[in-house]
Amino acid sequence: MSEPLLSIKGVSAFYGSIAALKGIDVEVMPGEIVTIIGANGAGKSTLMMTICGNPQAREGSITFEDRDITHLPTHEIMRMKIAQSPEGRRIFPRMTVFENLQMGAATAQGGSFEEDLAKVFKLFPILEQRRSQRGGTLSGGEQQMLAIGRALMSRPRLLLLDEPSLGLAPLVVRQIFSAIRDLNQREKLTIFLVEQNAFHALKLAHRGYVMVNGRIAMQGTGKELLEKPEVRSAYLEGGR
What we know:
Layout: E1 6-15, E2 18-28, E3 33-37, H1 44-51, E4 59-64, E5 67-68, H2 74-77, E6 82-85, H3 97-104, H4 113-123, H5 125-129, H6 140-152, E7 158-162, H7 170-187, E8 190-194, H8 198-204, E9 207-212, E10 215-221, H9 222-227, H10 229-235
Parallel strand pairs: 3-8, 3-9, 6-7, 7-8
Antiparallel strand pairs: 1-2, 1-4, 4-5, 9-10
């Protein structure tokens, strides 16, 4: 069996004296989509930020490609073939779509910009139509596509997606999740997904973890978790 691409062991993280993560164990294998679901405030986004070094884990270890990244500064972690599309998108609103994508390519090695740009435009054709438009004038869904596209321009081995469906219309949510599935199946990209929309996330993911109050409460394949009555009643809007 291959080694995990990302391994999180016994990780605790704090904001001041408040424990946000309490002994988290999570593994992401190469080529997988793994999702973390949970209610607001469960610690999902904190886990994503802790992988990126802000806040740093106070206990436990985080390894990526067998290298301990637990105490590395954020800028070093982001040079290691890890890319993040953060919660709230955080694109550069005054820059054009094209300039945002250029920023994403800043850490990519090799002269692959045009090829990578073509892949992003194939995945999200609307971005090609909007390439000279300022990021801040895009719709919410287009901004989310841009945030994912910008992350892809760095040629990551691991893509971290934090709440990609947040605040988007159902049709756009389906487009975003379809693009995530494409990236995993066509490009063999490993994806770690934090998501409040448990139904879409578990349908998409190979494996999932349920987080409650900073701890992992359950884990299993996406299908297993979708079928668990306690998951259905807590996260799937009355067991849809």
